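User: Teach me something about this protein's shape.
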Amino acid sequence: MCFFIRTPCDDLKSERIIFLKSKRIETNQIFDWFGGFATLKKLQYKKLDKLSLVLESLTKIKIAVILKKQYEIKEFVCNSVI
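Assistant: First, the predicted structure itself:
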């Protein structure tokens, strides 16, 4: 099962991000942007709290994904980094 999420970022060409639903998000999982904007091939994450992750792509786009119970998306924020 997958999530299809619209991004709130006006500066991104992509409209949606897809990722596999799993019990936890692994650092080697691949996140694919729709519209051919970017593919996050190498992931790093920091735990902000029990249900929050910050992901950074090779294209220096930071994506904060805040999850609720059972991995439903509560908030999706992304912005450019450096």
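Now, about its shape. The longest strand covers residues 73-80. Confidence is low (pLDDT under 50) at residues 1-61, 65-82. If you'd like, I can walk through any region in more detail.
User: That's plenty for now, thanks!
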